[in-house]
Every structure is written in C-alpha cells, then in structure tokens.
C-alpha cells in the first residue's frame, strides 16, 4: 500500500498535483461513462419516458450523495492533516469514527427514501408517463445507498492519505460490473430476470456492493493502516471530538452539494413543465456536463488533499502554489473538453437519440448556451477546495446559496414567464459568473488562512 501513497508535502507542486489528480479524474470519467452508457441503454431501448424517469431519479441520487459529500470531505481533510502531521493514532480515530457514522446514516437514509419514493417524485412534478418507471428505478437505488456511502467514505479516506490509485482500480471494477450487468438485467439475458428499468438500478446495486466487498478484502490483506487490525476495533467506537468536527465542518460542505443538487431538482422541475422531450434533452445534456466538470472535480479533490497535508505539516508556502497549479490545469483541461463537445455535439448526442429526434436539436442548443460556463465553475471549485481544506467552510456555502438560489433559480423563474425554457438555460452561465467573482474576492481578501479544522484533545 505504501507504494501507492504519495507524499503531498514535498516535491514539485504542479507535478505532484497532476499525478495525484489523474487517478481521481480517471475515477470520475469511469463514473460518468457508466451513467452515460446506462442512459444509452435506457434511451434507445426503453424510450424517452424511461430516460426521463432515470433523469429524475438520478437527481435524487445526486442529492443523497450530496448529503455524504461534506462529511466524507471533512473526513478526507482530517485524515490528510493527521497524516501530514505524522499522527497515525489521530488518523485511525478519524477513519474509525467515519466508518461507523456513515454505516448508521446510510441505513437510515435508505429506509426513509424507500418508503417515501412516490412522494418525492410527485413533489418534483415527474411527468405522469415516467412516474411508475422512476419509482421502480429509485427504490432499488435506495437499497444501494448504504453500499454507495461506505464505498465513498473509504475511497475518500484513501485519498486523504495520499493514495488515489487504489480507489481508481476498484472504481474500474465497479463500472465494468455495472456496464456488463445492465443489458443482462434490463432484457433478461440467459438466467437473468427481465427487469426493465429496474434492472439498470439493480446492476448498480450489485456493482457497488461487490466492489466494496472486494476493496475491503484487498485492503485487509495488504494491512491498510486505516482499517482496524488486531486489537484496534475500539477505533470504530465514535470519538465525540472527531464526530463533532465531522458534523460541524462536514455539514456546511455537505450543504454546498445539497444547495447544488436541490437547485438542480428545482431546475428539472421547471424543465419538466415543458414536457418529456425537453426533459429528455436536458437530462442528456446534464449527462455530458458531468464530463466537462470532471477535471475541476479531480483537481479540487487533489487540491484539498494536498492543502490538508501541507497544513498539517505547516507548509503554508506550498498552498498558494497548489492553488495556481489547480487553476491553470483547470483552464487547459476543462477548456479542451468544452471545445470538443461543442465541435462534436451532433455525433455525441447521437449516441443517445436518433439523428432526427427533436430532443437532439434541443440538447444541442442547451449545450451551446451552457457548456462554456463550466470553465468558470472549474476555477470556483478549485478555489473552494483550497479554502475548505484549511477549515473555512461557511464562506463557500454562503456564496453557493447566493449564486444558485438567489441568482440562478430566480432568473429561470422570472424570465421564464417571457422566454420559456430559454431562461432556464441562460441562468446557468449567469450564476457561474456570479460565483466566480465571489470566490476570487474571498480567496484574495478573506480570512480563510486563519481557519482551522481541529478534532480537539479527546481525539487522540
């Protein structure tokens, strides 16, 4: 395991950030590729209503993962700072508390979500022709939530220690299983039952659970130091100081994802009012946007881990270098993906729709309006990732609330009365510009450098 861990407190900053972020980017690519291939099966063989159902259900899944994002990010930062400070006992207590807490939280969310699935989709104004399909799909996803949560926190723990390669390998396994099982369970090939759209969700459930088990076995056999070994099971008993920090620092970070995902739910609710064709176009465009955002997400994860370890090692001189490298890489990587998408949009969208489909033309227009704004989003995300790694978690949350809920949604709703769906599309770049301006001002003049993420004396 030690060969896969990187020392993020020494060596060339740009090279270290790139090499650490590359497997994270690979994992993001695999996740998005998996979702896109699943959408292709659903869109081509089960119809636009089924694709609309999956789009609505996947927004709920994104919302659920948003809940866990902040807590797992707090775990990553705490682990990273402990590793940077060479405090192994504190790292183990942070990891053990996180494992236990996430197991309980995920089980609770799964039960509640399964019971209230129809009510959730009804509140989203899911089109009537897609609602039964969405219920069947989402209920299986809720069963998968505990495996997804534990899988996610384990991967984030590994990245906090400087290991981004092991999560990539097991993400590769998960995606391979999901892609392979999808057509078998959708159509009922061989001994597999024909489950329709529920088969796609079941493939995800099986892929996540089997990959989680395989990762745990692998880490145990390789004596991974943040899995409890002999005489170390007491680390799974939640430490009050660690749990307090996870919640107090993690909730604001999780709220950032919830602000994004909840605003996305409001946006698709607005889109749903324009019918299944427009919703299908928006759903596919959103799938493609995940690819555009992948470099920023990977660089943000890399920046968080690097800054956390350097803060723990008291190497503040490297923090500004990490920021400059992250922003520079984002402009190059995100810019290239946006350019390719806009140049090849008809061919790419043709993977989801027949060439003469009305939804394809709508999706092309949506991409033309929205895609370029993700370059700006990438800069914002990198800056947020840097300041969060020091413990400054409230300012990014406030800035997101302003840009998403006080700018994007009001623009879409107010101007939608005169311009229809066009107002929805333009609300995206307007909000991106606003969030970038606020992020740059805070990074330049804010007091984030004096923030701390401490677990208190009771943690070790």
From TrEMBL:
<keyword id="KW-0813">Transport</keyword>
<keyword id="KW-0812">Transmembrane</keyword>
<keyword id="KW-1133">Transmembrane helix</keyword>
<dbReference type="InterPro" id="IPR052031">
    <property type="entry name" value="Membrane_Transporter-Flippase"/>
</dbReference>
<feature type="transmembrane region" description="Helical">
    <location>
        <begin position="394"/>
        <end position="417"/>
    </location>
</feature>
<feature type="transmembrane region" description="Helical">
    <location>
        <begin position="246"/>
        <end position="268"/>
    </location>
</feature>
<feature type="transmembrane region" description="Helical">
    <location>
        <begin position="59"/>
        <end position="78"/>
    </location>
</feature>
<feature type="transmembrane region" description="Helical">
    <location>
        <begin position="423"/>
        <end position="443"/>
    </location>
</feature>
<protein>
    <submittedName>
        <fullName>Multidrug export protein MepA</fullName>
    </submittedName>
</protein>
<dbReference type="GO" id="GO:0015297">
    <property type="term" value="F:antiporter activity"/>
</dbReference>
<feature type="transmembrane region" description="Helical">
    <location>
        <begin position="288"/>
        <end position="308"/>
    </location>
</feature>
<dbReference type="InterPro" id="IPR048279">
    <property type="entry name" value="MdtK-like"/>
</dbReference>
<dbReference type="GO" id="GO:0042910">
    <property type="term" value="F:xenobiotic transmembrane transporter activity"/>
</dbReference>
<dbReference type="Pfam" id="PF01554">
    <property type="entry name" value="MatE"/>
</dbReference>
<feature type="transmembrane region" description="Helical">
    <location>
        <begin position="195"/>
        <end position="219"/>
    </location>
</feature>
<dbReference type="InterPro" id="IPR002528">
    <property type="entry name" value="MATE_fam"/>
</dbReference>
<keyword id="KW-1003">Cell membrane</keyword>
<feature type="transmembrane region" description="Helical">
    <location>
        <begin position="329"/>
        <end position="349"/>
    </location>
</feature>
<dbReference type="GO" id="GO:0005886">
    <property type="term" value="C:plasma membrane"/>
</dbReference>
<feature type="transmembrane region" description="Helical">
    <location>
        <begin position="369"/>
        <end position="387"/>
    </location>
</feature>
<feature type="transmembrane region" description="Helical">
    <location>
        <begin position="168"/>
        <end position="189"/>
    </location>
</feature>
<keyword id="KW-0472">Membrane</keyword>
<feature type="transmembrane region" description="Helical">
    <location>
        <begin position="99"/>
        <end position="116"/>
    </location>
</feature>
<feature type="transmembrane region" description="Helical">
    <location>
        <begin position="136"/>
        <end position="156"/>
    </location>
</feature>
């Amino acid at each position: 395991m030690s060969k896969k861990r990187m020392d993020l407190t020494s060596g060339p900053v740009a090279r270290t950030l790139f090499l650490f972020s590359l497997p994270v980017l690979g994992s993001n690519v695999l996740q998005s590729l998996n979702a896109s291939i699943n959408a292709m099966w659903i869109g081509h063989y089960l119809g636009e209503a089924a694709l609309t159902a999956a789009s609505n259900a996947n927004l709920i899944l994104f919302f659920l993962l948003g809940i866990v994002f902040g807590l797992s990010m707090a775990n990553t930062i705490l682990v990273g700072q402990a590793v940077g400070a060479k405090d192994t006992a504190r790292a183990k207590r942070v990891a053990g508390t996180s494992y236990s807490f996430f197991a309980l939280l995920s089980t609770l969310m799964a039960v509640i979500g399964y019971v209230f699935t129809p009510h959730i989709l009804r509140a989203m104004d899911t089109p009537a022709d897609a609602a039964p399909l969405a219920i069947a799909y989402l209920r299986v996803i809720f069963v998968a939530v505990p495996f997804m949560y534990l899988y996610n926190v384990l991967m984030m723990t590994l990245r906090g220690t400087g290991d981004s390669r092991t999560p990539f390998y097991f993400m590769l396994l998960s995606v391979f299983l999901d892609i392979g099982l999808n057509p078998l369970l959708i159509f009922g090939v061989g001994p597999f039952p024909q489950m329709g759209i529920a088969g796609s969700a079941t493939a995800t459930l099986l892929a996540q659970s089997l990959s989680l088990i395989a990762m745990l076995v692998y880490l145990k056999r390789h004596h991974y130091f943040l899995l409890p070994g002999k005489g170390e099971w007491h680390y799974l008993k939640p430490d009050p100081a660690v749990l307090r920090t996870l919640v107090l620092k993690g909730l604001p970070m999780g709220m950032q994802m919830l602000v994004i995902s909840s605003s996305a739910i409001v946006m698709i609710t607005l889109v749903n009012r324009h019918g299944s064709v427009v919703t299908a176009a928006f759903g596919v465009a959103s799938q493609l946007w995940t690819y555009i955002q992948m470099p920023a997400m990977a660089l943000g994860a890399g920046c968080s881990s690097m800054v956390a370890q350097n803060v723990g090692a008291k190497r503040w001189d490297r923090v500004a270098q990490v920021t400059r490298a992250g922003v520079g890489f984002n402009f190059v990587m995100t810019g290239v993906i946006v350019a390719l998408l806009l140049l090849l949009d008809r061919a790419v969208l043709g993977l989801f729709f027949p060439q003469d489909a009305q939804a394809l033309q709508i999706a092309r227009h949506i991409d033309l309006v929205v895609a370029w704004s993700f370059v700006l989003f990438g800069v914002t995300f990198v800056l947020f990732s840097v300041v969060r790694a020091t413990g400054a978690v409230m300012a990014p949350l406030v800035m997101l609330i302003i840009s998403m809920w006080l700018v994007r949604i009001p623009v879409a709703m107010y101007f939608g009365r005169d311009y229809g769906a066009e107002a929805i599309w333009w609300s995206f770049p307007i909000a991106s510009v606003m969030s970038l301006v606020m992020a740059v001002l805070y990074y330049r003049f804010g007091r984030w450098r004096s923030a701390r993420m401490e677990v208190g004396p009771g943690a070790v």
